[in-house]
Structures are given as C-alpha cells and as structure tokens.
Amino acid sequence: MKLPIISYGDPILKRKCEAIEKDHPDLKQLIADMFETMYAAHGVGLAAPQIGRSIRLFVIDASPYEEDEAGLEDFKKVFINAELLDETGEKWLFNEGCLSIPDVREDVSRHPTIRIRYIDENWVEHEDEFDGLAARIIQHEYDHIEGKLFTDKMSPLRKAMIKSKLDAISRGQVDVDYKMKFPASKRKR
Predict the structure, then answer these.
(1) CATH classification at residue 78
(2) Single pTM value for the model
(3) Cβ distance 188 to 181 under 8 Å?
(4) Catalytic residues, which ones?
C-alpha cells in the first residue's frame, strides 16, 4: 500500500526515533509498504518518520545509480535499529534531495565511507562498511531516524535563501506525483 509522505515542517521529521522490537506489529507489511511508497515517489531511500512513524527503520534501493557506480545493481536493503559507528575519508559534495522536501536540492558534504550496525528484515544483525553513493544514501536516511534533514546541513545564508520555498512546502503548495501529508493544512495528496 502506498502511504502518504510527510512533508517538511512536520515535527515528526525533527524527532529522534525509537528502537523497535522483533515483534513490532505488522513489520513485514510496513517494510513492503515503505518500498512501494518509495518506488511510487521515484526515491532511492525512505525512512519511517517520512511516513509518520517515529521508529528506527529505513529502506534503500540504490540500483538507480548502478550506471554511475559499480556494485549498486540490486543494492536493496532494510535497516532496523541502525547505529552509525564510524564515518571516514575526505568529505565530498553531492547534490541531494528528499521526498519530504520536494523541488529542493542542495550540495551536501558527507564522508565517503561509513561503518554501520543494523538488523535486516529477517532480524539478522550486521556490521558492514559501505562507501560511495551507497554510503551517502544510508547517511541521508540515517539522518532521518536521528531527527535531522539535509537542509540542516545548509549554511544559514543558503537556508534563508530558500525559506519561502520551504514554507510553501509545509503549507502544501507544491506539485508532486505522489501522496503527501502537509502539517499546516492537514490535507493529503
């Protein structure tokens, strides 16, 4: 089932999420719904707060970038209760966007290599190292479960320059081809 994506301005996007247990209600269905929602919105990652759930869960599928970087074909993963252990290397800029902040893109500086501990959809614990675009997508989604947005990484001047655009998004004044839920108007698309 496609779920509405929570827009910029909703307080849930700024809240640090809670860990979940193995018996979390309807977890398999929630994961399936998150993938369906992400694909319908043409995204490569989606975190639970973006669908109104303040839990430590995100999904990614980096395969749209397979032509840009080797190893990303079939790079589809579920991250439950993720803990970022280390970020290394010289930071690099990449133009990021977010399904919760449509029509806003910004160059964001992130470390190229990460080490992360997480549980997959079969409740198997992993500690893995990722680099390149996979690491970047994971860092972006990890930020969501920590209550951070990519706009938080912008300079105050740059953020001031796009304030009216961000305000418009929070009021639902944006045209997207996927369902969204806006905090100011409480209407759904």
Answers:
(1) 3.90.45.10
(2) 0.94
(3) yes
(4) 141
